[in-house]
Every structure is written in C-alpha cells, then in structure tokens.
Amino acid sequence: MSFSSKVKNEITKNTEITRAEIIALLSAIMRLSGTLAFGSAKLSFKITTENPSTARFIFKLLKDHLKIHGRLLVKKSGSLKKNNVYVIVISEDMGLRELLLETEILKEEEGAMGLNYSISPNLVHTDALKKAYIKGSFLGSGSVSNPENAYHLEFVVNSLELAEELKELINSYGLTSKVIARKNSHIVYLKEGEQIVDILSIIGAYNSLFEFENVRIVKDMRNNVNRLVNCETANLSKTV
C-alpha cells in the first residue's frame, strides 16, 4: 500500500463532523475529482477515485448526513495497472441541484445558473472549514511520496485560478506551497519535510504524521552520522 493510500485510509475514518465541514470537504472533492454533465435537460455528477476508502467515505457522508442516495459503481482502470476505479453518481432527482448550490459549485444569479470556478469565502471562513477544505482537496486529487524515498506532497488542479486559491489557503497556515504547470494541469506542491508534517496535521492524519516523522528523524540521524564520518575520515587523512 502506498503512503498516500495510508493517509487517505486514515482520514476517512472520521465521519463525525459538522454539516458545514462536510459541505466544505465535498465542495473540494467535487471540484478536484468530479465531472458535471448535462443531458436531456437534467444534471448529473460523477465523483471518481481509485481509493476505495475515499469512495466509501463520500458515499456515507452523502447518505447519512445529506440524505443523498448516490449510486456507487466499480470499474477497471484504463491504465496499465488495471486498478479498480470507483465512481459515485448523483443525479438531479437525488438532490444534485441543491447540493451543487450548497457547495457553491453552481451559483444562481438573476434566475440564471452558472458555474463558480473559485473557492467561496463562505466555505472557508473558519479554521475548521479551512482544514475540511484542504482535507477534501487531498482526498480529491492529493498524493504524498513515501518519506523513505522523497519529501513531496501535491494536489493536481484543473485550473490555474483554483490552484492559486488553494495555494493561498494552504499558505494561510504559514506554509510556502507553490504552483507549477504539468501537462494540462496545475500542481500545488510542498517539498519540505516539516511543511508536509504540518499538512498531515491539518488534515488529521496523525498516525501517518508520526510515521513520517520517525522516518525523517532516522534519515536525519543517518545523514548526520555520514557527515561526521566523512569529516573524521578527512581529518585522519590530513593527519596521516
């Protein structure tokens, strides 16, 4: 199991959160891993993930807290890995329109409906809501490298505007995330071990945080020992 999967499995165990936090979290997930479709004058929405615990988590939040009974589909990935892909489908008769308005993915102005491409301040006006939005962003399109190999955490975002807003939201915690373009997407990323630890704390992945810190401490000790050995070896060589 990848380190990213461990983090997602951990943070999806807690379903006892407020409705406002659920809306902020779902808004982030739907923006980063969702697809809105128009057909036969009706709306439908698909949330796609390769992580089964994330799929169960979203399905449970919709069903238990928002009374939306979506359909959960499982299909094989088109990639070489042939992993399962989990798709949650929400149709208009299940309450999709109300959900899109509440998550502020759709906005209604003068009787007309339109897409909202930015993070609404209403969804992130408290510390708890900010954390819920960042948590949803990680579940929607986030990944973190195994600390044994490298320190790298990223979010894949479709638009530059949303990437910049997510960056600012993350950096409001004193972090220094950056945005780069990659193919047709924009990546919000962090590469410093201490800041990745902070993000894991923000999203509530405390067990993963301890595992990450343990690896980081061992790596730092190993590096310090190597530096000391190299220094002593150099001094001995000079003495000889």
Structural write-up:
By secondary structure, the chain is an alpha+beta fold. Helix content is 48%, strand content 23%. It is built from eight helices and ten strands. The chain has helices at 3-11, 19-33, 52-65, 96-102, 127-141, 160-171, 193-202, 206-239; strands at residues 34-39, 42-49, 71-76, 84-91, 106-109, 112-115, 142-144, 153-157, 178-182, 185-190. A four-stranded antiparallel sheet has the order 1-2-4-3. The chain has a four-stranded antiparallel sheet with strand order 7-8-10-9. Strands 5-6 form a two-stranded antiparallel ribbon. A hairpin with a 2-residue loop joins strand 1 and strand 2. Helix 2 (19-33) packs parallel to helix 5 (127-141) and helix 7 packs antiparallel against helix 8 (206-239). The protein is elongated, with a radius of gyration of 21 Å.
Short description:
By secondary structure, this protein is α+β, with helices and mostly antiparallel strands. It has 8 helices and 10 strands.
Annotate the secondary structure layout.
Layout: H1 3-11, H2 19-33, E1 34-39, E2 42-49, H3 52-65, E3 71-76, E4 84-91, H4 96-102, E5 106-109, E6 112-115, H5 127-141, E7 142-144, E8 153-157, H6 160-171, E9 178-182, E10 185-190, H7 193-202, H8 206-239
Antiparallel strand pairs: 1-2, 2-4, 3-4, 5-6, 7-8, 8-10, 9-10
Helix pairs in contact: 2-5, 7-8
